[in-house]
């Protein structure tokens, strides 16, 4: 697993994409959540870029936000890069990108401690009830602490 040594603002989150049988395996990762303005910039880019160019833009953005992941290929760690993201199974790429951007909640990792699992479910429920992106609700909660 690749790890960064220093984060100037000290904020990162663990994420998880559960395996989908016959589609893709599970992926555990640590990431720097997108800020509200960054999400707006992604939305703007989606409006102006052709689909394949937006995919590359989204992969570059997401790669810059991922701190670590457990992705391997034939027993070797896969370095985090836009190129590696573009080689992911498409459904896995989309879900990973949407989690990092804050539009979708991480799946609950069965390996997380119960407090972490409970907090993740609570944030996802609050976002659904409020009709807001998960990332906004999580950021507000983090700012209060």
Strand order of the largest sheet: 1-2-3
Mean pLDDT: 89
How far is the first residue's CA from the last residue's CA? 29 Å
Oligomer: single chain
**Discrete helix count:** 6
**Rg to the nearest angstrom?**
15 Å
Strand content: 5-15%
**General form:** globular
What are the low-pLDDT stretches, counting only 5+ consecutive residues below 50? 1-7
Main beta sheet strand tally, sense and closure: 3 strands, antiparallel
Structural class: alpha+beta
Number of strands: 5
Q: In which range does the helix fraction lie?
A: 40-55%
Secondary-structure element sequence? Answer: EEHHEEEHHHH
Tags for this entry?
single chain, 145 residues, alpha+beta, three-stranded antiparallel sheet, two-stranded antiparallel ribbon, 50% helix, globular, disordered N terminus
Structure commentary:
This protein is of the alpha+beta class. Helix content is 50%, strand content 12%. The chain is built from six helices and five strands; from the N terminus they run ββααβββαααα. The protein has helices spanning 36-48, 51-65, 82-86, 90-101, 114-130, 134-144; strands at 13-17, 27-31, 66-69, 72-73, 76-77. It has a three-stranded antiparallel beta sheet. α2 (51-65) crosses α4 (90-101) and α5 (114-130) crosses α6 (134-144). 23% of the residues are buried. Mean pLDDT is 89; it is low at 1-7.
In brief, what are we looking at here?
The protein has 145 residues and is an alpha+beta fold. The chain has helices at 36-48, 51-65, 82-86, 90-101, 114-130, 134-144, and strands at residues 13-17, 27-31, 66-69, 72-73, 76-77. A hairpin with a 2-residue loop joins strand 4 and strand 5 (76-77).
